[in-house]
Amino acid sequence: MDYLSNNVAVNLKRFRQYRGMSLDQMAERTGVSKSMLAQIERGQANPSIGVLCKITVGLQIEFEDLIQTPKVTDSPEGSTPGARPSIKAVIFDIDNTLYSYDKNHIYGMKALTDYCESAFGKSAEETLACYKKAGQIMIDRIGGDVAAIHNRLLRTQGMLELWEKPVFPHARNMYHAYWDTLIRQSQPVPGVIDFLKELKKRGVRTGTGTDMTAYIQYKKLESLGATPYIDFMVSSEEAGVEKPHPHLFEICVEKSGVQAAECAFIGDNYKKDVEGACNSGLRGIWYTQEQEPEHETDYPIIRSFTEVDIDHFLK
Question: DSSP characters for 60-101?
Fold first, then answer.
């Protein structure tokens, strides 16, 4: 390996690891294939000037940063090699991260179908089919991936319109049948409240970054007993966009009061939470809901909050 290839290999890998990027992400951002990037990092390829230019443009770095001789005291962003700032803020997704939405959605839907059977004589199958159809109509009318697509009051209103039933008082009653039951049944996932407590003891800023309307997310956090440990909240209703849009993550960083590289974002959705956070400069961490990961990943993983060594986590 000649000295230039060595410099590029070391510098490229350091830039990627510092920013918490996978090779797939770097390939998408630079337009250079994953296999080529892997060979460059291993010093097994002599990249052309054209390839190096694609990398520098995609990563928004200077050409000299990529080819310069690595120094022991230097890192891509002015720290020690391979080192990153310690974590000073931790931001959590809510649904399927702080509690199991999937499990408790079943309870909510059971309450909704029971109401529709009692009020309108509709079977569970009829209710579920209408719920799905009303949801699609609502999404088509809204015309974008925004918080309103999660609004269950709009959904129940749409169901009543399809059935040609009175909106009042049933829309609100159906809304509460679903959400009140779901929230009443919900419990925090094992270990997450203790994890939040330990973060607060260490002076770490904690927040939530969530797709959904703000009101119902506040209700969930209150029911879960998480509110004493949450410093700030960001919802897609507030941001005007849903994850993985960078703007939502930008607001999270702004409210955290620290740099993006000092923020960890924990969520169950690999694309929205983990890749979205990393693409915005935060440290995306995949919460796999007490399960083994469904596929290999370059990102950090939390299988269970009961297993986290918090001091190691914050380094």
Answer: T--HHHHHSPP-TT--TTSSSTT--PPP-EEEE--BTTTB-H
